[in-house]
Structure formats: structure tokens, C-alpha cells
Amino acid sequence: MQFLYPTFLWALTALAIPVILHLFYFRRFKKVYFTNVRFLKEVKDETSMRSKLRNLLVLAARLLAILFLVLAFAQPFIPQKGEVKKGIKAVSVYIDNSFSMSAASQDVPLLEKAKQRAREIVSAHGPEDRFQILSNEFSGRQQRLVNREDALAMIEEIVLGPEVQVMSKVLARQKQALSLAKTDNLASYLISDFQRSVTDLTTYQDSLLPLNLIPLQSVQEKNISIDTVWFEAPVRMANQTTPLFIKIHNHSTTPVENARVSLKYGNEIKPLGSLSVGPGADRTDTVNITISGTGWQRAEVTLTDYPIQFDDQYFFSFFVADEIKVLSINDATPNRYLQAAVNGLPYFKLTDVNSQSLDYSKFVDYQLIILNDLANVSTGMGAELKEYIDNGGNVLLFPGRNANLGTYATFLQSFPANPPQSFEQVSRIVGEVNQAEFIFKDVFLNKSANLRLPSTQGNYTFGRFNSRAEEQLLSYRDGNPYLSKYKQGKGNLYVCAAPLAQEFNNLVNNGEIFVPMLYKMAISAGTDPRIAYTIGRDELLEADHQANSAEIVYKMKGEGGEFIPEQRAVGAKVFLTMNGQVKKSGFYDLFLNPGQVNHGYAFNYNRRESALQYFSPEELTERLGELVNIISALDTAVLTAQIEEDNRGTVLWRWCIILALLFLGIEILLLRFWKV
């Protein structure tokens, strides 16, 4: 047995006090007068024996009461884990307050159980000890060591939040705070559900910092979530119906039946029915959404699930332009059939420009650029078109009848795309449409019907290189390409084998092919802006810079209030960083002037913790090694006594107080009820 405060043992000298009292007080005699002294001798002997016995018992009770009272102050214990460090202790307690802690234990959410454990840890230490209370927020306030009362107050303030931290970062934060303590008596506690997705700790080898893990797990591990939402077409048009894809994932090992999904767009909530998802499987559903207006649009997909609900909503926003701009670059007069086809499309606007008077800086204003029978593609034009496509533009190339094949080859080589080799003035008919590709997908209701396909009176042959990622959209009956697509950067290059002039190509007269082809090419821009972002990720947001001065400050306003993001204006763009200022999922607007939205954003909670897969206490022990203490107390157990026992061994001071009170009670009973 050892003592935490052995200096209190000097108080054992107080044991002499009851001995002295016994020697001088209980030996005083009292005179008793009798009228008849015949039985005096017998009474004297009997009284003397009873008095001595009572006095000795009272003395023993007093000595034992003082003994155990002194021992209680000295705090005896039986050591179990080697030498016990004495003095002020610095303790760091991490409470996992991520959304996975909203799962239920036997009676309360895991977060409430974690806060209860944290209070017990703090209460198990002395008032002179110092504490760090850490959550996933990693705020500056949590990097200070505070006293016990402030620590208990900080525990009460912790609530569920969207932040998710891996355990290695948590431990690094704890070590950083404890390094500021003026003591070597340190301890670290991690209270979490220890999900596999965030528990990246491996074998623990720091013998200077005792690490204690307190795993908490829910009574059921069942959850489904909305994984992501996306549009098929990068560009949306007003009053048009476009497919919306919704991907739902089942994170549990049991099937989920009849999960209800709904879509909120505008002022309407549209039920999408119910669906079933197999264990550990994905389910992608498609819903047609009709765009009701222009400008920034907001929508929300909701899934009915319980009890984990943070991943049951998916917010997304998208922009609907007033018009789609198409640029036609011509050598001579514009093609009137092309003008008629484009101007016949709602919200489309065609601009014709001569190849000798181009303003390359205006390319970014157009969703589709058509090279109409150009004789040459200059080096400067080719470089600008390449940059335009890389940044998400679309170019449709119709080579001229007398094209300079050298300039074309140089331009196409930069992608790379197959170059034209020679012009063959023979009649050919298109025989196949690639209806699996976006341009012609879902264009024709009856795919088996006989379509009137384009025919040509002359076309270029192309060199074929297997290394070049050509995708044929329309093919001649002999298998040679008529219209090909090359994916480049964020955009697309479309190459036709024949000139657009009507004497060589009747495409302009074939409305059922030409019109939807132009429409789908224009809206297939690779610059599809993100429709949703994830809270907690260090993502760079991009928006059009609306001001000429770089000193103008953009503001963000949404579900979590109004704030100023970190921003940097570069040319026509402004780049934003949130730096953890977005705490709540929902919609946020970027603006310079109140009421005027420059860009709309949608933020969703991180799905990292949707998978409810945990490390068991046995797996944690095997993973981290023997230096880590796994505290797996039952829900009904009080952690304070267990921590004291782990820190000091078998603590005996409580028993000393109980025994001291017991012997004081025995003394009172002897003096009160044992009459001599």
C-alpha cells in the first residue's frame, strides 16, 4: 500500500490525545454513599470491571476513528500499474461531436453519453488540475488549459456540428496543448464512436503521454444517405425538362425497404415515390425536372430516414441563362440555313463574324463556336480556340472545300485529333447514329424508326490513329466518320467530314438531325458549374468578378448568417475560400450589393461519417498496442471511480472515511447507551 500524500501521516501523533484523556479522565473516582454497606464490595468489583471494558472500547473507537481520518487525508492506494505520478496533472479530453454521434445508445444520443463521460473524467481529478476540452471545431479557445469549473462549463456547451476530424489530428492537437502545461503529469482521453473512416491511429508508442480511449457505440448500425445529385446536361434552359439523377447509398448490412424521396423546387414539393436499396448497395433514380425560370435556381432532395438524418438532405443550386450564345466564324457570307436553324431555337442567339475581324477575348461569352467552311485556321486562332475548349467551350468544325490541310493538321494535332487528308467528291450517305452519346441520346422517341439521315456529295478522309480518343457520333455506311467528337480539357471539339455548304452537304436541310445536334452541342459545355459543395472541405469556389476594382469586398449570406469569405480577384474571376465559416447546410448567396445575387452556392454536410462502421474495443487494442488503455465501462457504471483506480490503483480513501465515521458512531453509542 502507498500514500498519495504521505506527509499527512504526521497527524497520527494525534492518537496520543485520546490515550492521554483515557489516562487522566477515566481514572477519576466518584464517591457513592450507601445506607447499608453490606454489599459494597460486590458492587465495587462489578462496576469497576464494566467501567474498564467500556473505557477500553471507547478508547479503541476513538483511536481507530482518528487513524482512519488521517489515512483518508493521506489517500492510501494499492498500486496496479507501476509508479504513480504526484502533483498537478494536465488532462486533455476530446469529445467527438460529429453527426455520427447523434445515433442513439440505450437511452440517450451518443453525444450526451460522451459529455457524461467527460464530466466524470474531470470530476475524477483534483481542483488544482488543469484541463483541455476539445471538440471537432478546433477553436482557439479549446487550445487553452482551464480549471475544473471552466472545463465542466465547456463540456455543457458542446453540441453536434458538421466538422469531422481524423484521430491523428485530434491527438496532435492534444499534444500541442499539453506541451504548454508546467507539469510532466499528463493524460489524454478520446471519447468517440471510433468510426473506421476517421480512426487513422496506428501503433501508439508515446510512453510520456498516457492515452485512454473510451469507445461509445449505438444500439443499431443502420443508415441510408443521399450520396450525390447531378444533371445529365451541364447547361439548363428555361421551360425545358431535363433529367436529374439522384444517387442513394445504403451503409448498413441489411436491406432498406420503401425509403421515401421527395424533391423541393420553387414553391412545390414533389414526392418521387419510394425505393428499396440492398445492403451496402447504391441506387440511382432519375426524375425529370422542368426548369421554371432563369437566373439562380434552388432545389432540395429529401430522404426519409431515422435516426441519422444529417445526410438525408441534399441542397443544390444551378444557373439558368437567359440565352445561349452561338458564334459562327465565316470566310465569306454567313450560311443562311445555319442562321435559320439557330434562330429557330428558343433562347439561342447567333452572331456571325468574319475570320479576319475576330476579337479573341469575346470567345468566353459563347457556349458554341462554329467554324464555317474556313480555308485556313491560323496559328493564333488555333491557340485561342484550344484555350477556349480547355476551359469548357465547344467548337464545331466544318472544313472548307479548298481548305489548307496543313493549317488544319497543325490545329487538330494540338488536341490531338485525326487530321483531314484528302477531299473525295463522291456521294455518301450517313448510315448510323450513336444514340448512346449525349448529343443524340433521348432525341428520337422511336429509335427503330427509319430516320432521314444526312448525305454528302463530297467529304474529307481522315488519318486514323488509335491513340486519339475519337468518338463517332454519325458514321457513313462504310464505317468512316461523318461527325466525330474529341473530349479536350473541360470542353469538346466536334469535327465534320464535309463542308457545311449545301452543294456538298444536306445537313442544313435535315432538321431532325441538325437542330437537336446544335442544341445539344451548345448545352454540352464542359464548364458545368458545381451545383453543390461540401462543408468542411478546403474547396476553392469560383465566381465571375463583377467589379473593376480589386478592393471591393464580396459578402456571403445564407443559412448560417452573413460573413466575408477569403477572396482573391484574378482577371474576370474571383476565387473564394470559406475557411470553416459555413457551419450549416443550405443555400448561400454571394453579393456585392444587398439584394443583387452574383453567384448562388449550395452546401451539404460531409458524408464521410454516413458509413456507421466502428472499431470494437478489441480491434482498437490490437491496432494501437499495449500502451493504450481502452476504457470500456458499462453504461451504468460511474467512470470517476474507474479512472481513479486506473490512475492510482485501488483507491482506499473512501473506505477510510467510511470506517472513521463508523468508529465515531460506535463511540457515541457506547457513551450514550452503556451506563456504568
CATH topology (level 3) name of the largest domain: Rossmann fold
Kindly provide the radius of gyration, computed on alpha-carbon positions and rounded to a whole number of angstroms. 41 Å
Report the total helices.
12
* Largest sheet, strands/sense/barrel: 9 strands, mixed
Q: Largest beta sheet: what is the strand line-up? A: 15-14-16-17-24-23-22-19-20
Distance between the termini: 41 Å
Strand content: 25-35%
Mean pLDDT: 84
CATH superfamily of the largest domain: Class I glutamine amidotransferase (GATase) domain
**What's the CATH C level of the largest domain?**
Alpha Beta
Q: Could you say which structural class the secondary elements and strand pairing correspond to?
A: alpha/beta
Question: Helix amount, in percent?
Answer: 10-25%
What is the subunit arrangement here?
single chain
Strands, count: 34
The stretches of 5 or more residues where confidence is low (pLDDT under 50) are: none
Large-scale geometry:
elongated
Keywords: Membrane, Transmembrane, Transmembrane helix
Pfam family, one: BatA
Protein name: Double-transmembrane region domain protein
Q: Helices and strands in order, then pairings?
A:
Elements: E1 2-3, H1 16-25, H2 40-74, E2 76-78, E3 90-95, H3 110-123, E4 130-134, H4 148-157, H5 167-178, E5 186-192, E6 211-215, E7 224-231, E8 241-250, E9 256-265, E10 268-277, E11 282-290, E12 295-303, E13 313-320, E14 324-330, H6 336-343, E15 348-354, E16 368-374, H7 379-390, E17 394-399, H8 405-413, E18 420-424, E19 428-433, E20 455-456, E21 459-462, E22 470-476, E23 481-488, E24 491-496, H9 511-522, E25 533-534, E26 540-544, E27 555-558, E28 561-563, E29 566-570, E30 573-577, E31 586-591, E32 597-604, H10 617-624, E33 628-630, H11 639-648, E34 650-651, H12 653-673
Parallel strand pairs: 3-4, 3-5, 5-6, 6-33, 14-15, 14-16, 16-17, 17-24, 25-32
Antiparallel strand pairs: 1-2, 2-34, 7-8, 8-11, 9-10, 9-12, 12-13, 18-21, 19-20, 19-22, 22-23, 23-24, 26-30, 27-28, 27-31, 29-30, 31-32
Helix pairs in contact: 2-12, 3-4
Organism: Haliscomenobacter hydrossis (strain ATCC 27775 / DSM 1100 / LMG 10767 / O)
InterPro entries: Aerotolerance_reg_N (IPR024163), Class_I_gatase-like (IPR029062), Double_TM_dom (IPR011933)
Keywords: Membrane, Transmembrane, Transmembrane helix
